[in-house]
Amino acid sequence: MLSPKIKLSDLRLNRLFCLFLVPFLFACEPEYTPKPKGYNRIDLMPAKYRPLQEKHPYKFEYSAYAKILRDSSRLSEPHWINIYYPAHKANVQLTYKALNNNPKTFNSLVEDARKLTSKHQIKAYSIDEAQIRTPNGNTAFVFELSGEVPSQFQFYVSDSTNHFLRGALYFRTATANDSLAPVIEYVKKDVVHLLNTLEWTDVKTGKTLGKTKR
């Protein structure tokens, strides 16, 4: 029979062994870390532009990665077109109106453009407005809309006497605007380039009508 002294020593050794073993058992458990929410990868090509070839009362340079599509909606008019980005399902809708040197028509179109923008106030966090004076003498107003709105960027440009062009950016996708932010900024830069290269033309001859005088 073993003496009590030996039994007590063995018991102490067992306790020490367990104390050292338990931390190692827990240390072997894999540590769980929640994965951050991922978004689809968006590849953006370097900016590249080409001139509008179709005959309209206007011409400009637009993205070489976009297509010009005729507006096929029920209310469309002859010089309404879409600048469509297939890779991003982004669409800039352009609507044109002739002013015929009529101040009432100009004021009415400006009011309509602002009303169409203000319709998004319910969902928009903010609407920032800026005025741009283009190299060809036109005045453009751009509106940047924040939040889950269907149109994130709108504008209108005119010489206030003969021509009025309005544009609005839309996406043919249900992706949230936060995820689309890089594409929205990308298209915004293209629109600014469009405005800076915009010229009014004679539809019949295709000739530029010259800079707007102020």
Name some characteristics of this structure.
214 residues; alpha+beta; seven-stranded antiparallel β-sheet; two-stranded antiparallel sheet; 3 helices; 11 strands
Walk me through this protein's architecture.
This protein has 214 residues and is α+β, with helices and mostly antiparallel strands. The chain has 3 helices and 11 strands, in the order H-E-E-E-E-E-E-H-E-E-E-E-H-E. It has a 7-stranded antiparallel sheet with strand order 4-5-6-10-9-8-7, sandwiched between helices. Strands 1-3 form a two-stranded antiparallel sheet. A hairpin with a 4-residue loop joins strand 9 (151-158) and strand 10. The longest helix has 24 residues, at 4-27. The radius of gyration is 31 Å and the shape is globular. The termini are far apart.
Overall spatial form: globular
Strand proportion: 25-35%
Element pattern in H and E: HEEEEEEHEEEEHE
> Biggest sheet: strands, sense, closure?
7 strands, antiparallel
Alpha-beta content class: alpha+beta
